[in-house]
Amino acid sequence: MQTLLRSPRPPGAGSHSRVLLTLMQCVPFLIALAVLIIELTPAHFIYTGPLLTAMPALAAVTMGPRGTMAAAALALAVSVTTATYNQAWGTLQVYTNFLALALVSVAGFITSSAMQTRRQRELDQVRRIAVAAQEVVLRPIPARLGPVQAASLCLAAGTGAQVGGDLYEAVQTRYGVRMIVGDVRGKGLSAVRAVAVTLGAFREAAHYEEDLVELMNHCSAALRREAAVPGEYGQDVLLEGFVTALIAQVPDEPVVQLVNRGHPPPLLVHHGRTTTLMPTSPLPPLGLEDLATGPPAKTESYPFIPGDRLLLYTDGVIEARNRDGDFFALPETMERMRARTTPREFLDQLHQQLIHHTGGDLADDVAMILADRLTGATGSDGVGPPGPQRSLP
């Protein structure tokens, strides 16, 4: 996902850098082609030794140790081919070229390996700092919250050093257990900043705002206030980014109440069957309220009885792909997993299934909350709250 907060980097800068890097990586191979053309034509009187010697040196700058050795091997093959074609074996010039090529190749390999090691160290350090910053904002949820037993899981993507904007929280309030899962459009410290703003608003308003729609609106208002603060990120942040969010409430009654703002719908496991709790009226994410054209937001209720299992997650789960490009089949995977497990054990198993599917290479961050409705954790009347309640399909 892209950034919620304005980035000072000009548009297209990343693509231009990638094009320039690709062109630089092609230079050693273009040199090899040019040498072959010169040596295998009447123009072979031109001395091409320095050109071949430069190939591994140029590769060491942009292609890493393996690329350096590949360029050196190609330069050696071209040297042998041209020396044989021109019947130059036995001359001092040929052996001088081989010696220079060997020295430059070894030096290039050593330099490239040292540069790669240094870059990896710096990348690991930046990632540790970013993960630490995220862990300050996110925290594991308690194993028991009122009428539910719960667990959380947060996985960082396996590529790059930037941390994404996945967020989650669960708190026990006088209205019931309230949970939020969301995804900021962005990565890095800007996304962590947006996560902190959203969670701060949720943690505060969850204890005094009775209506879930108004609770969601508090989170949206907090993001807008943050965007309006003059400074490094500009004042029109929410015109460029957004936050998908889902708030769930589990009261004493056997229901779960949801407000969904553009987030992947939660999954409910009931008697071994997984149901997707789709909203009746899709709503735009936080920050894109001006695009709303349908009916106003409202809280939707679904049955959530003892023994049921509810999963809240971010799109990094369902958009995870394997080598064939197939998406992770989350509902089917949940149905195949053992039912008699604790939420922590279930998420650990789901984690293993996800890693197996992707081969250990997550393209996006993942956040999940699993809540089990405990037996006997219903209200005194044993019925749901007044108002409309949707039945499971």
TrEMBL record:
One term of GO molecular function: phosphatase activity
Domain PPM-type phosphatase: 148-373
UniProt cross-references to PANTHER family, sorted A to Z: STAGE II SPORULATION PROTEIN E, STAGE II SPORULATION PROTEIN E-RELATED
UniProtKB keywords: Hydrolase, Membrane, Transmembrane, Transmembrane helix
SUPFAM superfamilies, alphabetized: PP2C-like (SSF81606)
Gene3D superfamilies reported in the protein's UniProt record: PPM-type phosphatase domain (3.60.40.10)
SMART domains in the record: PP2C_SIG (SM00331)
Segments crossing the lipid bilayer: 20-38, 69-88, 94-115
Protein name as annotated: Serine/threonine-protein phosphatase
Coiled-coil region: none
